[in-house]
Amino acid sequence: xxxxxxxxxxxxFIDIVISLTLLVATAPIVLIAIFAIAVTSKGPVxxxxxxxxxxxxxxxxxxLRTMHLNQGAxxxxxxxNSLGANGRLLVFNDDPRIGRVGRFxxxxxxxxxxxxxxxxxxxMSLIGPxxxxxxxxxxxxxxxxxxxxxxxxxxxLWQVRHRKKNASVLDMLEDDLEYIRTFSLSLxxxxxxxxxxxxxxxx
Length: 203
Prior knowledge:
Blueprint: H1 5-40, E1 46-52, E2 58-64, H2 71-77, H3 100-107, H4 115-121, E3 125-127, H5 134-137, H6 141-147, E4 153-155, H7 157-162, H8 169-181, H9 185-200
Parallel strand pairs: 3-4
Antiparallel strand pairs: 1-2
Helix pairs in contact: 1-3, 1-4
């Protein structure tokens, strides 16, 4: 599967222009967030995670750190698990892994603003499949190959359909593959428009 060249070129041009604009516009907010993380939590202010990108190339995805460093132990202490039945990604109303500042950053997706650097660098797009860690796709080479025909996105079908819900991993992968099959610039515009209320709606 290969996407048409001219829509992809336009998509890339839009990514560069908008990501650069947003990086400049949100710089004061990010600086305040970095300071808040630094004074309220020990450890690095950024979370750097490996993700699969286009052509199955791995890259480092940037986020502001919202979780405590001992997140695994905190889940175990509460008797919780990040995955439920049928591979369901669980979202807890009071997730013990997330710090006080991190909760606010996630509420308005401020923690994901540094991913604009990934977009500007060409590792990601503003709209696309959810960027996934290598461990989640290790046993699915066919799905990994299909997802790799496009850059992963900061927002996508999964985010606007299932954000803040306990959706299954299979639901997420199906949404990602649907996006690839039906890709168009008009679809990107619809997802971008639908992303705004998802960010500001009550939790």
